[in-house]
Design goal:
about 180 residues; mainly alpha; 7 helices; about 70% helix
Length: about 180
């Protein structure tokens, strides 16, 4: 399979997984909101939560590794092309405020992607703007595959949580007893 085809497949898989992660986080928040009071009630009034105040980290940003210098130059070129098309100062003459707002948002997103070394999202933004992408190589594919695995892991962690299992169970009392007994 060509690298370009692999890139496109992984790009859409990442988009899907990002949406799935957002949906799973939203459902997880609902699970937690229902689970915590039920758990406290089942544990009794003397129970002190060892994790109180630590919270659950949601919307956690994916940490990307530093890029080699030659890759950094390529990414910087793509970023500059995006900025040239979307910088708010260059959009003053556009009468359509919806289009202007969309381009300004793309500018902000591109800056965030660039700052976080999120090449996949940066290249995707460039692609949406009709900017020619550099030749995709094996390192891009590897980064995208890592991104896919990270997203899958995050979704699975939420689905493996006690709150998720309890919330989605037909036998909540039984599951709650199992959770308490495992503590």
């Amino acid at each position: 399979m060509s690298l370009q085809l692999q890139y496109k497949k992984l790009k859409y898989e990442i988009k899907y997984l990002e949406l799935e992660h957002t949906e799973t986080e939203t459902t997880f928040r609902n699970c937690i909101d229902k689970f915590e009071p039920a758990f406290r009630k089942a544990m009794g009034s003397d129970y002190k939560d060892p994790n109180e105040g630590k919270g659950v980290i949601l919307n956690e940003k994916i940490k990307y590794e530093e890029l080699p210098i030659e890759k950094e130059k390529i990414v910087k070129k793509v970023y500059r092309k995006i900025v040239t098309k979307t910088h708010p100062d260059k959009l003053e003459k556009i009468p359509n405020s919806k289009l202007k707002d969309k381009l300004v948002q793309q500018f902000k997103d591109a800056a965030e992607h660039y700052d976080n070394n999120d090449i996949v999202s940066l290249f995707d933004a460039a692609d949406e703007l009709g900017i020619d992408l550099p030749e995709i190589d094996e390192s891009h594919i590897n980064m995208m595959e890592t991104n896919v695995q990270t997203l899958k892991t995050k979704v699975q962690r939420l689905r493996d949580s006690n709150a998720w299992k309890w919330f989605h169970s037909e036998e909540r009392e039984f599951i709650m007893n199992q959770i308490i007994n495992s503590l």
